[in-house]
Amino acid sequence: MNDLARTALRALDVTRDGIRARPSISLAVAGFLAASLTVVAGGRIGTVKSVIPLTTWMGLLSRNGYRSSDLLPGSLALAGVAALLGLWLLALRLNHSGTTTEARVWWIAGAWSLPFVIGPPLLSNDVFSYAAEGLLVRNGFDPYSVGPAALGNVPAVAAVDPSWRSVPSPYGPLATTVQHLAIAISGGNPLGATLVFRALGVVCLVAIGLLAAELAGGRRVQALTITVLNPLLLLHIVSAAHLDGVMCALLLGAVVVANQRKWVLGLVLAAAAGSIKAPGFTAVLAIIAVHVQGYRGRLAWRTGLRDTGVAGLAILIFSVLVGNGWGWIHALNTPALGHTSLAPASLVADMFSPIVEAASFDDLAAGGRITALVAAGCIVAYLTLTAQHRALDRTAGFGLLAVGLLSPVVYPWYLLGGVVCLAPTARGALRDWLVLLSAVGCLLSPPGFTSRMSTNLSIAAVAVSLAVMAPRVVGRRRAARSVPPPRPTVTAGG
User: Fold this and answer.
1) Rounded to an integer, what is the distance from CA 90 to the centroid of its chain?
2) Please, where are the H alpha helices in 228-296?
């Protein structure tokens, strides 16, 4: 072995010892590099075809938009996301053993999120739709009656996904108010409004972390690690700046204050979450059900009616923040105009195909969607009626997951509400399944590939994730069964 080889091995040993001695610094640096790779490569493939970005974003965003033949940047972006997921799993393992502190987790979160804060929106073009809808309100249009195309041939419309340029907004009145405020703060500049939404996403991530730590009690570090370091939140709340981040922060706040028996404030926050996006109303039902269970007879009915009145009044107040405040109910079907092949509703429709061969694609799709929505309604009803058997965060979280997964179309950010509510207190197998769900959400429908290849990669991601997770879940069950039951204690005179 020559001197050069000895020097290289010695340097490798020193680096390895440094990583073991300071795992937090190593995680922060490695995550920053993985996030930077994702941002740089993701900017070259864009998000949607046939759009003209408002800016090249310091040269990171391609003016050519999305091109399905750009396999190299698409592969690099996917590799960056996969690396970030691997580092998150490592952080979960390290922090579960109590080797770090809250401050270190926040520093790691800052390092991981910095590239997403600086870089262009990734994986979704919705933030530009938010800016265009804010302009609609500013110019006197009703976003629940017309789409962004009503603004005419302006850059704000050219940056919107063509599929959503002529359709009304499906977001609640509080979301529309936020969109209008973002445009007002930026002086009518859609790019400035986009930056406001990005800043709002960062604030929501911090709020989610603080509320998750509060909800977790003595396991604050673990709650922070599974939330603020979760790549699903970094990609869709910080980078893509989805308004789901606002909904999640309000939902978590509602759960925290309701656990403190501040029922009125909890109902108002839950109603506010539902006034951002409709699935948030699931938490209103959960809070009412949990509050009522402490009473019997007439007092229970009186409490339920009072809570329903409080929630209804809050919803009414939020609805008058914009003109035609109830118009969004007619636009709730807007997302269903799209199609996601791996959504349970689409898979059910595919199962109907050989049974009803003469049915058209639209009929099969309608049957699958109706079936999925009925199943979601039944699950939410069951969770509400049996709320006394579980904690509030689980009733709300499972309900949100049911609504998100059984919607007519399923996008990764639809998982955020359920994951954020369940993650802070998750233990054992539930924690493992939430990690699996977050990983699948990050790898679902990666951009930069053809539609067929993207679907195949999504299927492969689901299969690999299940293969990795299954032995762990089975091992947990075997370990639980191998533990002998506690011996009964004998009391005096027993």
Assistant:
1) 21
2) 231-233, 244-259, 263-274, 281-292
Contacts of 138 (CB under 8 A, 6+ apart): 180, 183, 184, 188
Q: How far is CA 332 from CA 100, 124, 223, in A?
A: 44, 19, 33
Query: The tokens 């109603």 sit on which residue?
Result: 271
pLDDT, tens only, 366-389: 888 898 899 999 999 999 999 888
What sign does the dihedral 384-283-441-389 (CA atoms) show?
A: negative
Cα(96)–Cα(428) distance, rounded to whole angstroms? 12
Percent of the chain residues past pLDDT 70, beyond the cut: 87
By the 8 A CB rule, do 148 and 161 touch? no
Q: Which tokens is 55 given? A: 């800016």
Q: Are 402 and 437 a contacting pair, CB within 8 Å?
A: no
Residue range 269-309, pLDDT digits in tens: 999 999 999 999 999 999 999 998 877 878 888 988 999 99
d(CA 216, CA 425): 5
Q: How far apart are CA 473 and CA 479, in angstroms?
A: 10
- What are the backbone dihedrals phi and psi of residue 486, each rounded to the nearest 5 degrees, phi first? -65, 145
Lookup result for tokens 């020193």: 14
Cα three-residue angle 281-349-285, rounded to 5 degrees? 15
Report the alpha-carbon distance of residue 443 to residue 85 in Å, rounded: 10
Contact present, 375 and 407 (Cβ < 8 Å)? no
Alpha-carbon distance of 207 to 203, in angstroms, equals 6
Lowest mean pLDDT among 169-183, 313-327, 472-486: 472-486
Helix/strand number for the chain, H first, E second? 20, 0
Which pLDDT value is given to residue 296?
81
Taking Cα atoms as reference points, which of 275, 254, 278, 276 lies closest to residue 264?
A: 254
Tens digits of per-residue pLDDT, 203-229? 999 999 999 999 988 788 899 999 999
Tell me, what DSSP letter sits at residue 241?
A: -
Cα separation, 144 vs 329, in Å, equals 9
